C-alpha cells in the first residue's frame, strides 16, 4: 500500500473511448530481510538480503550502495509509515579477488545468500542498521515494527560517447517507462 500513483483526467465533453497507459518504477534490487545483520567470519557485519526482480547480479559488485525504502514504527498511540533514505555510501558488495577465484572470468554463478551480502560495518561497531534507521525517522529502535528497505546504486548517471550520444544510469529501463507514461 501507499506506493502506487493513479492519475486521470476526465474530458468536459462526451467521449466514446479512452486510453490507459501504465508503467512501473520499481527496479531489480536487493531487498533487506527483516533481521538484517549477520556477523561475518572476518571481523565484519553483513546485511542479509534477497533478490527482488530479475537482475544481473554482477553489476552490483564493488559499487557504492545505499539503502532506501519504508519503515513502519509505533509512536505510542499510532502506527506511522516513514520514507527512509540513508543518502550516503553505506554498503558495498565486494567482489572476490581473482586469486581467490581463478574462474571469475569463465562465467561465475552467484548465490545471493552467500556471494551477494553487502558489507555494512566492522564487527566492533556499536550501531545497527535498524538503530540508524530509527535515528533518521526520529524514533527509538524498539518502535520499529517492520521495514521495506532496498539497496540502490549511488553512482550518478552520465552522458558519454564521442558526440555525447549515449546515456548510462542505474534504473534507467524502469524510469524511462514512467517518464514516457507521463
Description:
- This protein is mainly beta.
- The protein has helices at residues 129-137, 172-181; strands spanning 29-39, 44-52, 65-74, 79-85, 119-122, 144-153, 158-160, 166-168.
- The strands form three sheets. The chain has a three-stranded antiparallel sheet, with no helix packed on it. A three-stranded antiparallel sheet has the order 4-3-6, covered by helices on one side.
- A hairpin with a 5-residue loop joins strand 7 (158-160) and strand 8.
- The chain is flat.
**Overall 3D form:** flat
The order of strands across the largest sheet is 1-2-5
Low-pLDDT parts are none
Instruction: Determine Rg (CA atoms, Å).
Output: 20 Å
Number of helices: 2
Kindly summarize this structure in a few lines.
With 182 residues, this protein is mostly beta strands. The chain is built from two helices and eight strands; from the N terminus they run βββββαβββα. It has a three-stranded antiparallel β-sheet with strand order 1-2-5, with no helix packed on it. A three-stranded antiparallel β-sheet has the order 4-3-6, with helices on one face.
Amino acid at each position: 500500500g501507499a506506493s502506487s500513483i493513479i492519475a486521470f483526467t476526465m474530458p468536459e465533453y462526451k467521449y466514446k473511448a479512452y486510453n490507459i497507459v501504465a508503467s512501473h518504477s520499481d527496479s531489480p534490487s536487493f531487498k533487506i530481510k527483516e533481521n538484517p545483520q549477520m556477523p561475518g567470519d572476518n571481523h565484519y557485519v553483513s546485511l542479509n538480503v534477497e533478490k527482488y526482480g530479475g537482475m544481473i547480479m554482477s553489476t552490483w559488485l564493488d559499487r557504492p550502495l545505499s539503502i532506501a525504502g519504508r519503515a513502519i514504527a509505533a509512536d505510542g498511540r499510532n502506527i506511522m509509515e516513514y520514507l527512509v533514505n540513508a543518502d550516503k555510501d553505506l554498503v558495498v558488495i565486494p567482489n572476490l579477488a581473482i586469486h581467490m577465484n581463478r574462474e571469475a572470468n569463465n562465467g561465475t554463478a552467484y548465490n545471493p545468500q552467500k556471494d551477494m551480502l553487502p558489507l555494512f560495518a566492522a564487527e566492533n561497531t556499536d550501531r545497527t542498521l535498524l538503530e540508524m534507521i530509527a535515528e533518521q525517522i526520529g524514533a527509538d529502535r524498539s518502535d520499529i515494527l517492520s521495514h521495506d528497505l532496498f539497496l540502490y546504486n549511488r553512482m550518478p548517471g552520465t552522458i558519454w560517447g564521442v558526440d555525447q550520444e549515449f546515456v548510462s544510469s542505474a534504473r534507467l529501463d524502469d524510469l524511462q517507462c514512467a517518464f514516457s507514461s507521463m
